Amino acid sequence: xxxxxxxxxxxxxxxxxxxxxxxxxxxxxxxxxxxxxxxxxxxxxxxxxxxxxxxxxxxxxxxxxxxxxxxxxxxxxxxxxxxxxxxxxxxxxxxxxxxxxxxxxxxxxxxxxxxxxxxxxxxxxxxxxxxxxxxxxxxxxxxxxxxxxxxxxxxxxxxxxxxxxxxxxxxxxxxxxxxxxxxxxxxxxxxxxxxxxxxxxxxxxxxxxxxxxxxxxxxxxxxxxxxxxxxxxxxxxxxxxxxxxxxxxxxxxxxxxx
Length: 258
Prior knowledge:
Helix content is 40%, strand content 23%. By secondary structure, the protein is an alpha/beta fold.
């Protein structure tokens, strides 16, 4: 579990995150959503330690990221898996070499064992037999799956996904959503997904946090998002005018005067 307390960050006198409090649950898909410029990217970067907030706590199973020394921080980073927006595979490396990269960097296993682990991860994302191919030789969806294989190679406790469906068609995006959801459950990871894809919200949004102008406006599940009373959330997801009309039509005797 990851918990953030009173997370606050400002740039040039402008508050980007204002005393955010949230809990990201283990074994569930936790989604951060919000408009461009809402603060969700700064929040994600703060959680993984790329940006240092002005105030607050970032607790990884009770361990405060902001109070860690270099040794503790290095150990924590080994427990993290990252899935970047553009897959971020190395063009000059084969798919297998890409998946083995974090193992070569951080694992003390033998080359044979690292190869076996990478092979297992590729099989888990349905990419068996692609290890000798280069990123330029596979599709965008396959690149995303290869990036997921690389992200789970070190068996992380925490998985971070930045816009994982960016640039994918809806069918392929659904496959990626379901894969992330399944491996989150399978490996009991704390998964945080930064997204604006409402299909992802409705497909795998088990714990959704909506950031609006630097403030946590709403938190709930995909089942609860439909009945939210937050106008800002409705504006973001449903285009609230259409939503209000739809709700009005659902009311008893809608459109009929007494």
